[in-house]
Records
---
Amino acid sequence: MNLQNTTQVLSLARHFTVLLSPTPRGARLARLLAVEWLRDQEVPYEATEAATHVVAELAANAATHGRVAGRSFRLGLLSHEGVLRIEVTDTRGEDLPRVQPSVPEGDSGRGLVLVEALADRWGVRPGPAPRKTVWAELDLPHP
């Protein structure tokens, strides 16, 4: 009989990724999938609500501004050590998002303002070409 001592490393990180079409339907599906994953992970209601809005905005931006025909965008969710990280990767790496002053009568331009208000941190990571990843982090309440 061969007995070996093995050490298991347990990771407390939980993650979810999915590729979606860069369409309004894909953006809507990103939001719906995120809600289900957050509920399965038992993320507190307030954080789930904020994260849902952040996912909706970032996915809508990927479907609208990051759209390249025939190329999907990726939604990634990661929960680790009290932080929820949301990542949306599209294939328009040359078009980096930035917060712009909104026009009161305009129909768009408020998405990143909302992300900035709801997230504790957010930013953009370029590459690898032709991609970029827009990310946001929310600090989760301690149990």
---
Amino acid sequence: MSTIVREGGCGCGHVRYRVTGEPIFVNNCHCTQCQHQTGSTSVVNAFFETENIAVLEGELSESTVTAGSGGPHIIMRCSQCGTALWSHYPRLGRLGAGLRVGTLDEPGSTTPDAVIFTSEKMPWVALPEGIPAFETYYDIREVVPPERVARVDSLLERRKAGEG
């Protein structure tokens, strides 16, 4: 079985990265916090184990904002142009990364598993057909296959044990 390999980078070309494997889950988030942080209507994040992401060239910088949970949301950016490439959220810490799908060379290579925080979406945004939509968040156990849930559980156990 071959492993999926995707590459991407920032807006100026300074940072290039590679991510291996399939995402654990992919969310299209419409919360007002994501709108503020991206300056757009929403963000599409593909969640991976951080160890599956490798920086090929360039330097990253970090910005920390407060997540909806109140914990630290660390945004990894290109040190030159500031493009947000991925985030570490409080629940998984640095063990998991929400990769900004729009920074992939082929952003259409992933499809969201869920559209979330539709209660906060801009009123003129149309939701895609065939993708489950939730007013707030959802239980991934009800949406993604068990083998992907097991990957999240593994990260949560590692986090609980003091990693990340």
---
Amino acid sequence: MKVRDVMSKDVQVARPGDTLQNVAARMSAGDFGFMPVADGDTLIGTITDRDIAVRAVAGGAACTSPVVEYISREPQTARADDDLKTVLDAMGTKQIRRLPVLDKDDRLVGVVSLGDLSTRVKEKYAGEALEDISRT
């Protein structure tokens, strides 16, 4: 099984100039707490609801501040054609809950998350990886 077989393809993406308020509102409306940040189809980082709360709001940022100022740069990623077991093992070892997925040309094509794995993968190793990741 490959990452592309379980990843979410319909992913909300933040743009560098989007405001913190806009991104937070989209997260709230979609009931998710993570967004890749891309310039065109090139991944430049990620932003989480925790980044917004802890880095931005707690630091006094205006809700109109651009999200690019608070992103995590150089995030861990997976490739769409990566073997799922290898990615699961890496997620478990590094306790990563969500990974942007890139194609062979480094374009953002999806996200693989704990939710994807728990609902779409029934294999034994998925449960082991989820247990490792959930320890934090």
---
Amino acid sequence: MTLMTERPTISGTEPDSFEDLLDVLDELNLRDGFKAEIYRGKIVVSPWSKGYYHRVMKQVCEQLRPFLPEDHCLSIGPFLYVFPGDESAYGPDIHAAPSRAFETESNHLDGEALVFVAELTSPSTRDDDLTDKVTVYGRAGVPVYLLLDMQAKQSTVFWTPSATGYESHCTRPFGEDLHIPKPFDCPLDTTGFHAPATNSPAP
């Protein structure tokens, strides 16, 4: 197997099935600071999130948790959700699903159990967050996908899942409220989602 450096992807001998690919993912011995997911049949290795992303994820969870449906869990990773029909497996930054979805000894959770996912983009995976994940999450019937574009400093919410992705979306710049549809049906205040200010060097 070869680790690609420009956009890290493991390629080489093709596994016989998606299940085999998941086994390869489980056996990876990654360097500290990196995570691995499966995008359309390929294993993609990318760096872990920047430190301030934790603050943003915490703000999202604090605002949405009061509106969480009964007997559901809203969490910050790491959990791996699988989408066999699209040969994909993602570890979303924030995810919500019924509590029963976690009652398993497997580390491969059912992607169709999700009721909400949120991704915070990074330069290495931003294009996939904007394209492939929109399609895969929508095809799996995930009701709401929140995309926080940390490079463009804007948030987009997708809803009305369909066989081709999502039929509805709304984008707002950071600092403006964004309505999160059902099952939350609440506003999200995106103030404070920006990167921390850098200190100017002393004169």
